[in-house]
Design a protein that fits this description.
Elements (H helix, E strand, L loop, with lengths): L1 E4 L9 H10 L7 H5 L6 E11 L22 E7 L11 E10 L2 H8 L15 E9 L13 E5 L16 E5 L3 E3 L12 H15 L7 E4 L5 H12 L3 E6 L6 H5 L4 E4 L4 H17 L6 E6 L3 H11 E9 L11 H7 L2 E4 L2 H7 L1 H16 L6 E2 L1 E4 L3 H9 L7 E4 L14 E2 L1
Parallel strand pairs: 9-10, 9-12, 10-11, 12-13, 13-14, 16-17
Antiparallel strand pairs: 1-2, 2-3, 4-5, 4-7, 4-17, 5-6, 6-8, 15-18
Length: about 425
């Protein structure tokens, strides 16, 4: 954070001193904004660094698709922007977070291309998930909810306006207290930086829609990606058995390490789709489910849905549509009728805002799974803040695997290596 000042004025306390006071000197904890602006009459507003998208990479000025999308690095840049503060009157339910880690996943890349279902006005700051330290809070936020100095995870999509999950990729983030969750001491901050994009989406499909539990059999496609791996991990933590599907067997190691009982390749054509279907049906019988799998978490869709997935579901089973990596194809109702299958769109954000108590319980269960070791806390790809564009380029190159994290500032030196695969 940078404080702009006049040459003739005194400089305020350095920001790192403010953080030290709020975290380590509880008797002096007060609104950080009052410390930050103890020379308020003589100071301009503080600024911070934030990544912003200035135009959509796949759309022209007229909003129509370009023949060839621009490189993603051409539409993103780090800007100096006004830093958020807590207004005592307007922000009584807000929490101010000094960001340490932010999660970036495939939907963030799609959004910067202009191909996501939500298109924010440009310029905008990407990112739904942020983890860091509380440095200020509004007067209505009780200490029972959060204290200054706490390690917290926040999800910007949970703010009352929703907003599609924006604003996390910045040095300081202001969110509703409803969007803030304490991080257990056992967990490194980076390991929870993808809770919203990955684990919330997976949990909503598995538990809220599917009510998965011991004895169930779950099929997950796109199982090497963020939501796919999270679905495998959560289903296993809930006591279910899991069959994972990947587009190429080179990707099969990731869902295996996440706990998948079986891993098969569905490939990219009808022949490999057919083979995948037969492998899944055979494995289901072997695993005690002769009628098919209980639930399918579908991140891929495309031709795979009709060619294989519908045939694998048991009567009265559910298929959760989470994404369309292979494109959207019409759904034919005939086979669904014969299979007595239910197809459900899985969007967790609206449900979470409408059911805040139930969602908070769900979040606590996910975090407890991690703290107890039922899910291995991990950050698969970690990039420094200055190298943020490399995180987006992973998805541009179809190389995104697992949890991708940007380190805004490190929680502790040496715990995470930049631009390396890390398990924490």
């Amino acid at each position: 954070m940078i404080l702009e000042k006049s040459d003739t004025r005194k400089e305020p306390y350095p920001y790192y001193i403010i953080q030290f006071i709020t975290i380590y000197c509880p008797n002096y904890r007060t609104h950080t904004s009052s410390l930050l602006y103890h020379h308020k009459p003589t100071m301009k507003r503080a600024t911070m660094r934030a990544v912003r998208c200035h135009r959509f990479a796949a759309l022209g000025k007229d909003g129509k698709p370009l023949p060839t999308p621009s490189p993603i690095r051409d539409v993103l840049r780090i800007d100096h922007v006004p830093a958020p503060t807590i207004d005592p009157t307007l922000d009584r339910n807000k929490v101010l977070i000094s960001a340490h880690y932010a999660g970036i996943q495939y939907p963030d890349f799609l959004q910067a291309q202009g191909l996501y279902q939500i298109k924010p006005p440009v310029p905008y700051t990407p990112g739904m998930d942020v983890v860091g330290l509380v440095i200020d809070k509004g007067s209505d936020v009780s200490d029972d909810r959060v204290r200054i100095g706490d390690r917290v995870y926040a999800n910007t999509a949970l703010c009352p306006s929703g907003g599609g999950g924006l604003g996390a990729l910045a040095e300081t983030v202001s969110v509703s207290s409803d969007a803030v969750f304490p991080v257990p001491d056992e967990l490194h901050m980076s390991s929870v930086a993808n809770l919203g994009r990955n684990y919330c989406a997976a949990y909503h499909s598995l538990k809220v829609i599917g009510n998965v539990g011991p004895g169930d059999l779950v099929l997950v496609d796109g199982a090497s990606g963020g939501v796919g791996m999270a679905s495998v991990e959560l289903a296993k933590a809930m006591g279910a058995k899991v069959i994972a599907g990947v587009s190429h067997m080179d990707k099969g190691t990731l869902p295996s390490t996440a706990g998948a009982d079986k891993v098969f390749c569905y490939g990219r054509d009808r022949e490999t789709h057919k083979k995948f279907k037969e492998q899944v049906k055979s494995a289901a019988k072997e695993m005690g489910h002769p009628d098919g799998v209980s639930l399918i978490v579908d991140v891929i869709h495309g031709d795979l849905f009709q060619d294989a997935l519908v045939s694998c579901i048991r009567p009265l089973g559910k298929i959760c549509l989470v994404g369309f990596v292979a494109g959207q194809k019409p759904i034919k109702p005939g086979l669904l009728l014969i299979k007595e299958a239910t197809v459900v769109g899985s969007l967790w954000g609206r449900w979470a805002r409408a059911n805040p108590i139930e969602f908070r319980n769900n979040m606590n269960e996910i975090l407890n799974f991690m703290a107890e070791g039922k899910i291995e806390p991990r950050a698969d790809n970690v990039f420094s803040f200055d190298d943020y564009v490399k995180a987006f380029e992973l998805f541009e190159q179809n190389s995104g695997r697992g949890n991708t994290v940007i380190c805004v500032q490190s929680e502790s030196a040496g715990r995470v290596s930049m631009n390396t695969k890390s398990k924490l």
